[in-house]
Each structure stands twice: as structure tokens, then as C-alpha cells.
Design goal:
598 residues; alpha/beta; ABC transporter transmembrane region fold; Rossmann fold; 2 domains; 6-stranded mixed sheet; 4-stranded antiparallel sheet; 21 helices; 12 strands; 10% strand; elongated; disordered N terminus; binds adenosine-5'-diphosphate; binds magnesium ion
């Protein structure tokens, strides 16, 4: 009976039903804790003892006063009871320490596992997943959402347990020792509970809004800084400032509103609580003067009530924290449950010849379903052939490449390589056969050597040097004081476009793919580096199926065949000689445009 009453202030009547699914989500993340369950259980046991042992404190304190005023108890010396009190404190300190220690070991490791899983999963997701998500958002999944869970599994869970135990056991104890006084006190509970529920729900909503607004503001900072040169070029510093200021203002407004309610909530609870205590003290004093209870009983009652009151106030916060943790686990599970882009069995390999066929392929990007980018497009590239794709910007050339790379798989029609539909190859084994040199080469932070080795992890130093040499890159690399060990990327030196391009070529040479793709590889280069890069590309293209996309038609003159693409369709195909002979053709038109520009 007493216990049931004690549980009520948790106030989970309808909420529990509402949260059943949500708690499952938290449990879904909890599976990461399971490998460390022994430690976790040890922590729970310590938590149990540290929370319950302290509850004997008010009881013993009351007895101490009673003994002092001449009443007898099992122990009847003030010193023994005081020693017992100290013993209680000591035991609870030891258990508290162990609890923190065990929980830290569990949560640090399991949350690292969560981070690893989420990162690993994100890496395996198809590109369409990234098309509609910002990098900053994904980063905060791995950083702040996981941190939130870590707090939950260590601090919040402990708090929840401690406060619930205080509430239940404390109430049971005072109900046993001073039933009339307890009943009187319980009358003040409904006011507290109902207001805690109402306030709590509202505050939770506001906190979520605050978080969202803050995330928005952070995204502005991130995006602006990532493209700071663009901002400066357009002299949009003021614009970005005011954009950020606007976002910050929203954060501050809503955070202040939250703080107001939270403050009002806390002070209201404190007022009601102490108001209740005054009433209870009055009734208790009356009972003492009637000699219905002892002074010691009253003291332990008051101490318990303070404990219980504190735990009720704390439960509101814990509850909000749990809600947020559920939000975080929901977002993490969402990523973990996403479908990876393809089954991959480790170490399966396939050696392709590079015979590519597109048969009536139609495609629209998942993000823009209504615009068909490729329209019943058919083309074939024989193994070892050098083929060029030309056409106006936006015609769909890069899209063809994306499909060959298997970045997107939901197209209509059939694409085969060596006669086998793409989907039947193991994804990673397949991609090991495809090399790409893009227009914008991204170098990772690290040395030049590491960046070249990215094409073949574990490549020997000779292999790397040889690849650099064949890519026309060794000469400029050796001009750096640190040579191959020169740091590039965000924190290192900046390489020119042509230099980066040649590093990408060295990477591709190391990778040694049977299908090579050059997507505007030389388009942004000046004439001098273009010739150096072109030389390197010629070396790279030897003995491989190669698909070249280029704006400068001079670079594709030597291609075996040229496909001219317009609005997702092939409108002309043939050699340079054949196509330039068609005077009213698109190729001829593009050719003329270039000569006019030149
Ligand atoms: N990730 C994407 N999501 C939606 N649309 C895209 C995406 N990438 C390209 N497109 C659109 O597809 C069309 C073809 O683009 P693309 O193949 O890059 O052209 P090209 O390389 O020939 O210049 C363009 O209209 C472009 O806006
Ligand atoms: Mg393109």
C-alpha cells in the first residue's frame, strides 16, 4: 500500500503507455551495453547499495535523538549509533565510488562501440542517403547524440534509480514509523505531481526546440567556414553575420523562455515543498506535544521528507533527460537501421575486362524523382576501348559515371559489365576494378605518400615512388623539402590543381583498375599543367577501358569512339573524323563554339 503510494509521484500512468515504444528505442541502443553486462550489473548492484544504504541515515539520526532524550533502543549508546552513522556514510561512499567507476568503464566502451557502428554504417550507406543530409548533422549524430546517451547510461540512470528508491523506500519507512503524519504529508503530493507533469512536459518541448535552433545556428557557422573564400569573394561577411545573428537570436529567445519556465518550475516546487514541510512540522509538533510520537521520530520524518522532496524535484530533470536520450537513440537507430548499399563479403575479388553495356537505361536522382536525367540511353564500351562522352553541361555525362560507379542503383534498364548485370557483382570487389580521376581532387590530411597509397593500402615505398613517377608527379614532389612526407590537406601545404591531379593519377596507377574514368580531369588546368597531366593520363590509360569526359575537344580527339549526349540521350556516336564531318551535328557545333572561344 505504502509502496504504491510512493510510486505514484513518478506519474507514469498514461505516460508509460505513450513511451513504451520509445523505451524500446532506448533498449535498442542498450544492446551495445550488453557485451559489458557483467560490469554493468556490478555497477547496478553498487548503485542499489549506495542508494539504499543512505536511506537508513534519517532513521538512525532519529534514534540518536531518542536515545539522547532517554528512550531505549536496540543500541543504547550515543557513541555506538554515531559510529553506525559514520559506517553508513563510509559504506555509501565506497559503493558510490565503485558505481561511478563501473559505469564509466561500461559507458566509455559501449559508447565507443556505438560511435564505431554508426560511423561504419554511415560509410556503407548509398550516396542517396548523403544527398539529403548535411555533414554537420551526421557529425553531431556521432558526437552529441552519443554523448547524450553516455550521460544517460551513467548519470541519468543512476539518478533515476536513486531518486525512485528514495521515494519508494523513504515513503514506506515513514509510513511505517509515523503513519498519521505521513498520510497528512501525502495530501500535499497531488499538487506537486500534477504541476510537475504539466510544467515538465512544456519544458521538455522547449528544450527540444532550443536544441534544434542551436543546431541550425551551428550549421550556419560550419557551412560558412567551409566556404569562407566564397563568402569573401562575394563580400558577404555581413550577410553571413546577420544570418548567424538571426539564428542566434532565435536560440536565445527560446532558451530564455525555457529558462523562465524551468526557474518558475523549480521555485514553485520549492515553495510548495517547504510550504508542505511547514504544515507537516506544525502537525508533527502537535503530535509530539500530545506524545503520540517522539522527537526522534519527528526528526527522521523531516529528514526523510526532505530526501523525498529532493528526489521528486530531481525526477522532473531526469525525466526530461530521458526524453532527450530517447530522441538521441531514435536518431542513431535510424542510421543503424538504414539499408547499406550492397552486400559485401570480405575478400571476395573479381577481375573485370571492362566490357560495359548500357541497355535502355533511364534514371532520375532519388532527390528529384520527376526529372529524368537519362532517357532510355544505350551505349557500349568494349574492353580496352577509349571512349569519350561529350555534350553540354547538365546533359547527364557525370550521371552515367555515377551509375557505372554504382553510386545509385535504382535505374530502369540494364547495365552490364563483362555481360553480367552490375547488381550481381559484390559491390566492393566490383569497385576495386574502377578507377576515377575527377575534376576536383580531394586530398586527405596527411603526407603525399599516404595520399598516393590511398589507391592501394599497404603499397610498398617503391610502388608509390614508381606510381608518382609515371604520373609525372615525382619531379614536383621532390622539390618539396620533405618530399613524399610533405603534409597536404587542410593543415598542410596547398597543391595546385595540376599537382593534385597528378597525385590522383598516381593513386589510380597504384589501384590499377580495369575500368578508368576521367571526369573532366583536365578541365580546370592551365595549358602547361594540362600537358603534364595529359602525358600522365596517357600513361594511365594504357591497356584499360577508359571513359573520358572532357570539355576541351582537343583532349578527346584520339578517342576510339565519341558519344555525344544531350539531355540524357545519345544523339551522335562515332570517331572524331566521322562526327566533325556531320556539318549540322551537335559535335560539329560544339567544335565550332570552341574555335570561336579559342
Ligand atoms: N545528386 C543529384 N541530385 C539531383 N540531381 C542531380 C544530381 N546530380 C546531378 N543532377 C542533375 O542531373 C543532370 C545531369 O547532371 P550531370 O550528369 O552532372 O551533367 P554533366 O556531367 O553532363 O554536366 C543535371 O540536371 C543535374 O542538375
Ligand atoms: Mg559533369
Amino acid at each position: 500500500m505504502a509502496k504504491r503510494r510512493g510510486r505514484e509521484p513518478l506519474g507514469d500512468g498514461e505516460k508509460r503507455a505513450l513511451n513504451k515504444n520509445n523505451l524500446k528505442k532506448l533498449l535498442g541502443i542498450f544492446r551495445f551495453v550488453l557485451p559489458y553486462r557483467a560490469l554493468f550489473i556490478a555497477g547496478m548492484i553498487c548503485l542499489f547499495f549506495s542508494s539504499t544504504i543512505l536511506l537508513s541515515f534519517p532513521y538512525l539520526a532519529g534514534k540518536l535523538i531518542d536515545i539522547a532524550s532517554g528512550r531505549s533502543w536496540v543500541l543504547d549508546s550515543i557513541n555506538t549509533v554515531t559510529l553506525l552513522l559514520l559506517g553508513v556514510l563510509l559504506a555509501q561512499s565506497i559503493f558510490s565510488f565503485l558505481r561511478v567507476y563501473f559505469f564509466a568503464r561500461v559507458t566509455e566502451r559501449s559508447m565507443a562501440d556505438v560511435r564505431m557502428s554508426v560511423f561504419g554504417k554511415i560509410l556503407l550507406l548509398p550516396l542517396k542517403f548523403f544527398d539529403h543530409r548535411r555533414v554537420g548533422e551526421l557529425v553531431s549524430r556521432i558526437t552529441s547524440d552519443v554523448s547524450m546517451l553516455q550521460d544517460t547510461f551513467s548519470v541519468t540512470l543512476a539518478e533515476l534509480f536513486r531518486q525512485a528508491a528514495t521515494l519508494i523506500i523513504g515513503t514506506a519507512l515513514i509510513f511505517y514509523t509515523t503513519p498519521r503524519l505521513t498520510l497528512f504529508m501525502l495530501l500535499t503530493f497531488p499538487v506537486l505531481v500534477i504541476s510537475a507533469l504539466i510544467f515538465g512536459r512544456y519544458i521538455r518541448k522547449l528544450s527540444k526546440e532550443t536544441q534544434d535552433k542551436l543546431a541550425n545556428a551551428n550549421i550556419i557557422v560550419e557551412e560558412t567556414l567551409q566556404a569562407v573564400n566564397v563568402v569573401k569573394a562575394f563580400t558577404n561577411e555581413l550577410f553571413e553575420r546577420s544570418r548567424y545573428m538571426g539564428a542566434l537570436k532565435e536560440v536565445v529567445d527560446i532558451a530564455l523562455r525555457t529558462a523562465t519556465y524551468r526557474g518558475a518550475f523549480i521555485s514553485f516546487i520549492i515553495f510548495v515543498l517547504f510550504g508542505g514541510i511547514v504544515a507537516v512540522m506544525w502537525y508533527g509538533a502537535t503530535l509530539v506535544s500530545e506524545q503520540s510520537i517522539t522527537v526522534g521520530d519527528l526528526l527522521s520524518f523531516v529528514l526523510y521528507t526532505t530526501f523525498i522532496g529532493g528526489s521528486i524535484a530531481g525526477l522532473g530533470d531526469v525525466y526530461g533527460q530521458l526524453q532527450r536520450a530517447i530522441g538521441a537513440s531514435e536518431r542513431l537507430l535510424e542510421i543503424l537501421e538504414e539499408k547499406a548499399e550492397g552486400e559485401t563479403t570480405e575478400d571476395s575479388t573479381v577481375n573485370l575486362n571492362g566490357d560495359i553495356v548500357f541497355d535502355n537505361v533511364s534514371f532520375a536522382y532519388p532527390g528529384r524523382k520527376t526529372v529524368s536525367v537519362l532517357k532510355s540511353l544505350s551505349l557500349n564500351v568494349r574492353a580496352g576501348e577509349k571512349v569519350a562522352l561529350v555534350g553540354p553541361s547538365g546533359a547527364g555525362k557525370s550521371t552515367i559515371i555515377q551509375l557505372i560507379m554504382r553510386y545509385y542503383s535504382d535505374y530502369e534498364g540494364i547495365i552490364t559489365v563483362d555481360g553480367v548485370p552490375l547488381g550481381e557483382y559484390d559491390l566492393m570487389a566490383y569497385r576495386k576494378n574502377v578507377g576515377i580521376v575527377p575534376q576536383e581532387v580531394i586530398l586527405f590530411g596527411g603526407t603525399i605518400q599516404q595520399n598516393i597509397a590511398y589507391g592501394k593500402p599497404g603499397a610498398s615505398e617503391e610502388e608509390i615512388t614508381d606510381a608518382a613517377k609515371r604520373a609525372n608527379a615525382l619531379t614536383f614532389i621532390e622539390q618539396f623539402p620533405d618530399g613524399m612526407d610533405t603534409i597536404v590537406g587542410e593543415r598542410g601545404i596547398k597543391l595546385s590543381g595540376g599537382q593534385r591531379q597528378r597525385i590522383a593519377i598516381a593513386r589510380a596507377i597504384l589501384k590499377n583498375p580495369s575500368i578508368l574514368i576521367l571526369d573532366e580531369a583536365t578541365s580546370s588546368l592551365d595549358a602547361e599543367s594540362e600537358s603534364l597531366v595529359q602525358e600522365a593520363l596517357n600513361e594511365l590509360m594504357k591497356n584499360r577501358t577508359t571513359i573520358i569526359i572532357a570539355h576541351r575537344l582537343a583532349t578527346i580527339r584520339k578517342a576510339d569512339r565519341i558519344f555525344v549526349i544531350r539531355e540524357g540521350e545519345i544523339v551522335e556516336a562515332g570517331t572524331h573524323e566521322e562526327l566533325s564531318g556531320q556539318y549540322d551535328g551537335l559535335y560539329n557545333h560544339l567544335l565550332k563554339l570552341q574555335f570561336q572561344l579559342a
